[in-house]
Design goal:
heterodimer, A: mainly alpha, Cytochrome Bc1 Complex, Chain D, domain 2, 2 strands, B: mainly alpha, two-stranded antiparallel sheet
Chain lengths: 269, 545
């Protein structure tokens, strides 16, 4: 003990005590903290975020800033949430090919795992809507007719009656909803990408969103039948008029030419 | 009775059943003289003379299918709940009109096909009338004595537009309701009386409970009734005037060269009816038109993008879409120029083509009858005017579909709107000038062909080494056809001083007429056709130059 007390004024004594105390509390925490699993999750989560940040630095930071704070070329991503990332990157809109009136849908660049990593990183920057689970956008328990009514009230003025898309000002447009993953439609409603207004759960409840998606699946899905024949793009009277002129009147004029050319002629002999 | 016939020495045996029937009918209806006068009526052969037939037959098809549709359609705006076979509308509230249209589409046997035939035939009918009118216009078939028939035809087109529009409005789906709302807006923009007319038409505040029933009787009774009458009058006049024909050897202003009504044209026209019906039915079986089930029921608080009228009303949509949203506010009243100006221009666009024949008749001062058609190139000013008018029409159609042009060609809708605004004024001028130049070029080519013959493609080398292309002289028939048209001389104002030395002042009208006449027929506007002397001089052995 003498030895110890003799060195109690040593310059490094405080440090040693601190280390001991830390080791002690650390050991105690390790001994008493319950969930070893949670700890593993935490690491995985932070690893995902870490990976996401790396992907972000390579693919997104040039426009959205090194920490997602946004630049003159791209908006801030703080608080947009995982759903926005999943929509923008999952539909190929991001990373953008070139600036323009609107960033169009294109081939998806990242794998779903990478998209999840990016989403986790962006979600870690600030709270925002999460990626919806499948039961939220599945057809089960949905009212198609109600969805149709909601669609015509809230969506049709830009996306057309059955979601064939339409024009907006200055080259912007509401894209066609044909072949869009229901998850992405849900996310789009929730986050309001690009020129679209957002419809948070306070505006359109989860059930409403589900109904709308079910309606779209019914009238504009892969298995939708067109009882009247060719849909002609589902664009209304303009494409019908074009068809009537070209194939209706065009065919009739061809027939008229044919009939007029075949006349009763006196035989020459 | 039988004894008298057998003892008659002139008898050729017992009359056949058909003969008896004909005799019976003749005694009561007088069809013999009618048939005698008309059975051998001659019609000339040309495909463009059958465009009117396309219209007549599609009109008949519309009437036939329309009758079928009336059996199932309920023109009522009572609110009902839908429980038919179309799943995505189950339990939705809608008008009875909309529900019955859904039932026609899904639950009535053959209903959807008949509906589609009805609608496709309507689009073809209007397109047919448009092309038929252009044929008559560009060949000058509207000249005396056919001015009245031109007006009948024009009225048929306008009435057809409105019959189509009222029909489009009947199903009371979201698209048609938007169209009616558009119309209501246009009516409201009329100063002073607009609101009254709107309330009168809709029986109160829009949409009210009346317009479907009212439009129904207009659509199935009033307008088609007038149209049927006009069509009969149109045909009677065609019979009375006899058909026009293109110039050619043996064809004069006093004859018609062609085939007799019976049996040739009866067979041709009858067969053509079935061909028209067949083509329209095939289209209706292949392609959807107006899928009202996809539109949903009309509710004034809902609207969809891509809400356009059928093509024949598209130019009015274009007028509204490209007109700047100007308005004037005075003493608490608003004059919505953004809607009212298009409403005023709409009839003017139509009237421009309708009154043209009368303007031309005034300029030429020609009171003679014309039964020989013009080739469009030989009337450059008329042709240029027609093309300019079609340019305006087409530019407005672009305006009416500006959103689809934007999405399908990746353009800015604002740029398209500005294009239409400028092209509405500039386009027809350019089209007029270009068309006139093309016509004059074609006239020159005709002259060249008449005087120097057809280019044969054979290159001949002359003894002194010169290469020339051999021109083959045209046949007499071709020469006649190319030179049969007559050319007007520009009208002169005449002497400004009469024989007594008194100064005679030309009125403004006379001056304008002389000016217009110069523009029509002056040196700049037609190439003098080759004369016999020119032809003789060139073909009398001086070789080809």
């Amino acid at each position: 003990m003498k030895k110890l007390s003799a060195r109690r004024r040593h310059p490094l004594a405080a440090l040693v005590v601190l280390l001991l105390a830390l080791a002690c509390t650390g050991g105690l925490y390790a001994a008493f903290a319950p969930a070893s699993k949670a700890q593993a999750d935490e690491t995985a989560q932070s690893l995902t975020i870490e990976e996401g940040k790396k992907l972000y630095s390579v693919g997104c930071a040039s426009c959205h800033g090194t920490d997602g704070q946004g630049t003159s070329d791209g908006p801030s991503l703080v608080g947009v949430g995982a759903a926005a990332v999943d929509f923008q990157v999952g539909t190929g809109r991001m990373p953008a090919q070139q600036p323009g009136a609107q960033i169009p849908r294109k081939k998806v660049v990242y794998s779903q795992a990478e998209i999840d990593q990016l989403a986790a990183y962006i979600a870690s920057l600030g709270a925002g809507p999460a990626v919806p689970t499948e039961e939220k956008y599945g057809d089960e328990g949905a009212d198609i007719a109600k969805g149709g009514e909601l669609f015509r009230t809230n969506c049709a003025q830009c996306h057309n009656f059955t979601g064939k898309g339409g024009a907006l000002t200055h080259g912007k447009f509401a894209p066609s909803l044909e072949g869009v993953d229901p998850k992405h439609i849900y996310e789009a409603m929730q986050t309001g990408p690009q020129n679209m207004p957002s419809f948070p759960d306070t505006t359109l409840s989860e059930q409403n969103k589900k109904d709308i998606i079910a309606y779209l699946n019914a009238v504009n899905g892969d298995e939708t039948e067109s009882p009247g024949g060719l849909e002609l793009g589902g664009l209304g009277p303009v494409s019908e008029g074009l068809f009537a002129w070209i194939f209706g009147l065009g065919a009739l004029i061809a027939v008229a030419v044919w009939v007029a050319a075949r006349t009763a002629k006196a035989k020459k002999s | 009775m039988s004894t008298t016939t057998t003892t008659d020495p002139r008898s050729r045996g017992k009359a056949s059943g058909g003969e008896k029937l004909a005799d019976w009918a003749d005694g009561r209806l007088g069809i013999y003289s009618l048939a005698k006068a008309n059975m051998r009526k001659i019609f000339p052969d040309h495909w463009s003379f059958m465009l009117g037939e396309v219209c007549m037959y599609s009109f008949l098809i519309i009437i036939l299918t329309g009758v079928y549709l009336t059996l199932f359609f309920h023109p009522s705006m009572n609110e009902v709940e839908y429980h038919g076979s179309y799943v995505p509308l189950q339990g939705q509230l809608m008008s009875e009109a909309y529900r019955s249209t859904l039932n026609i589409s899904f639950d009535v046997r053959g209903g959807l096909l008949i509906r589609q035939i009805h609608h496709w035939a309507a689009l073809v009918f209007l397109a047919g009338m448009f092309v038929h009118m252009m044929r008559v216009f560009f060949t000058g078939a509207f000249r005396k004595p056919r001015e009245v028939n031109w007006l009948f035809g024009f009225l048929l087109l306008v009435l057809g537009m409105f019959t189509g529009f009222t029909g489009y409005s009947l199903p009371d789906d979201l698209l048609s309701g938007t169209g009616i709302r558009f119309m209501e807006g246009a009516i409201l923009s009329v100063p002073i009386v607009g609101t009254y007319i709107s309330f009168f038409l809709f029986g109160g505040e829009f949409p009210g409970h009346d317009f479907v029933a009212r439009f129904y009787s207009i659509h199935i009774l009033l307008l088609p009734g007038i149209m049927l009458g006009l069509m009969v009058a149109h045909l009677i006049l065609v019979f009375y005037h006899k058909h026009t024909q293109f110039a050619g050897p043996g064809k004069t202003n006093n004859n018609v060269v062609g085939m007799p009504l019976l049996p040739v044209y009866m067979a041709k026209a009858g067969g053509f009816f079935f061909l028209v019906f067949g083509v329209i039915a095939a289209i209706s079986a292949i392609a959807t038109i107006n899928p009202i089930w996809a539109m949903g029921p009309y509710r004034p608080d809902q609207v969809s993008t891509g809400a356009q009228p059928d093509w024949y009303m598209g130019f009015s949509e274009g007028l509204i879409r490209v007109m700047p949203g100007w308005e004037i506010n005075l003493w608490g009243h608003t004059l919505v120029l953004g809607v009212f100006v298009p409403l005023v221009i709409f009839p003017l666009v139509l009237a421009a083509i309708a009154v043209y024949p009368f303007i031309e008749a005034w300029v030429t001062g020609d009171k003679r009858e014309h039964h020989i058609l013009d080739r469009p190139r030989n009337a450059p000013t008329r042709t240029a005017f027609g093309v300019a008018w079609m340019t305006v029409y087409f530019v407005l159609l672009i305006g009416g579909g500006n959103d689809l042009w934007a999405t399908h060609f990746h353009l800015s809708i604002n740029a398209i709107t500005w294009f239409v605004r400028i092209a509405f004024f500039v386009g027809p001028v350019i089209a007029f000038i270009v068309t006139k130049r093309i016509c004059l070029g074609l006239q020159r080519r005709d002259k060249e062909k008449v005087l120097h013959g057809r280019e044969s493609g054979i290159i001949k080398r002359l003894p002194h080494g010169e290469f020339i292309e051999v021109h083959e002289p045209l046949s007499q028939e071709a020469l006649y056809t190319l030179t049969a048209h007559e050319q007007y001389r520009p009208a002169e104002l005449g002497a400004t001083v009469d024989e007594n030395g008194v100064e005679r002042k030309a009125t403004g009208g006379q001056k304008l007429r002389a000016k217009l006449s110069k523009a029509y027929f002056g040196e700049e506007s037609q190439i003098p056709k080759p004369t016999v002397e020119e032809y003789k001089e060139i073909t009398s052995g001086h070789g080809h130059h």
